[in-house]
Design a protein that fits this description.
Blueprint: H1 3-13, E1 21-24, H2 29-32, H3 41-49, E2 54-58, H4 77-87, E3 97-102, E4 109-115, E5 125-126, E6 129-134, E7 137-140, H5 143-150, H6 174-187, H7 192-197, H8 200-206, E8 210-211, E9 214-215, H9 217-223, E10 238-244, E11 247-253, H10 257-265, E12 272-275, E13 284-287, H11 291-303, E14 313-317, E15 322-325, H12 335-339, H13 351-359
Parallel strand pairs: 1-2, 10-14
Antiparallel strand pairs: 2-4, 3-4, 5-6, 6-7, 8-9, 10-11, 12-13, 14-15
Helix pairs in contact: 9-13, 10-11
């Protein structure tokens, strides 16, 4: 493979840097393999492993992937792998690979290190510190990311999917089920007529609000009667606090969340005001807050709440902003990736709850 061919190959396989891929020159492994913390191979191995795993391309110029090559010093691929597992505490050896390319025309060496994801609840350390990639920088592991790693559950466990033994369909709110039906028909219009003929029991299973006819915690959260909230063994509340004219007031909302989030929405002070677009004398009227954005914030706070901590969701309304606070953290990636639309999550904290909320059109799963 020529130098130009290798560059094109790398560009096709690793087209951009992100939390799963780094391009580094590292011209000499003698100094760069285990050198200055936050700026050597093992620091980047730690950072990539502490996210979802990824690839470290060595011997290329940042941004262009121009081939400059690296002096591997006295490392071969096997020795490099052994050194990484020795220097990076908790780094899994399974899935850790070093791929070597040597160009035919210029005899330059490029390494691609394939780095596995950290083991469950065990951050990977280099220089006695755990690292992560945040935007374009390498930083010590943030508290939120550390909590994600330390709180990892077995993949089969989902709090919201747990069946409630003594719960029956009589514990569900009929108006909430009707709202869920309307959401389901909007999500799946081809089943709209058929949906009207389904019994509540059939519909709840079709929408994944129940699992094999069993009432789960997700069922009660979304369509359960308010007086049956105690069966969740969870506080299941959204607190609304409003600051207005030097006074503080508010209210508390509980299940069924498919209905009570709209009730909270109607309490928020939203009004229309005029703006004057540039180069126009004709004013335009806009809402202070977009209704869909408010509901998106509320519904995502419910979907991604960390229910094991038995915490409430807090909505705070100030003069010029709304703040949504739940007990959780970014389960995968960081906030900037979601703002730019770069991130489409592969995993969710509460898959049973998320699936039901998607089916009844409370949220989407685009990220």
């Amino acid at each position: 493979m020529t130098e130009q061919e290798l560059q094109q190959y790398l560009l096709s396989k690793y087209p951009k840097e992100n939390e799963e891929c780094e391009w580094k020159e590292f011209k000499n492994m003698k100094n760069d393999f285990n050198g200055k913390e936050k700026d050597d191979v093992i620091s980047y191995v730690s950072a990539l492993s502490n996210m979802e795993g990824g690839h470290l391309v060595i011997g290329v110029v940042d941004n262009t992937l121009e081939i400059v090559g690296t002096n591997t010093y006295n490392y071969d691929r096997q020795k490099a792998k052994l050194r990484m597992t020795d220097l990076c505490a908790n780094l899994p050896s399974e899935g850790l690979l070093v791929e070597e390319f040597i160009t035919d025309d210029s005899h330059k060496t490029v390494w691609v290190i394939h780095i596995p994801k950290h083991m469950k609840r065990r951050p990977v350390y280099a220089h006695s510190k755990a690292w992560q990639r945040l935007d374009d920088s390498l930083v010590e592991l943030t508290d939120s990311r550390l909590n994600v790693i330390l709180d990892e559950q077995d993949s089969a466990y989902d709090w919201t999917a747990q069946a409630i033994k003594d719960a029956t369909i009589d514990d569900l709110d009929s108006d909430a089920i009707m709202l869920a039906r309307e959401g389901y028909k909007q999500r799946y219009p081809k089943f709209a007529k058929e949906c009207d003929s389904w019994s509540d029991k059939v519909f709840l299973d079709k929408a994944c609000l129940t699992i094999d006819g069993k009432i789960t915690k997700a069922t009660l959260l979304l369509v359960g009667k308010e007086e049956k909230a105690h069966k969740l063994n969870h506080i299941a509340q959204i607190v609304w606090k409003c600051f207005q004219d030097g006074q503080t007031f508010g209210d508390i909302y509980t299940i069924p969340f498919i209905r009570t989030t709209s009730e909270l929405l109607n309490r928020i002070r939203n009004y229309r005001f005029k703006i004057y677009p540039k180069n126009s004398l004709i004013p335009a009227e806009v809402w202070k807050y977009d209704t869909e954005s408010i509901l998106e914030g509320l519904h995502n706070s419910i979907a991604h709440q960390r229910y094991e901590s038995d915490a409430r969701i807090i909505v705070t309304e100030d003069k010029d902003k709304l703040t949504f606070l739940n007990d959780g953290y970014f389960f995968e990636g960081n906030y900037s990736q979601y703002i730019t639309g770069e991130k489409t999550p592969r995993h969710y904290r509460n898959p049973a709850l998320v699936k039901a909320m998607v089916n009844i059109k409370m949220i989407d799963t685009q990220g």
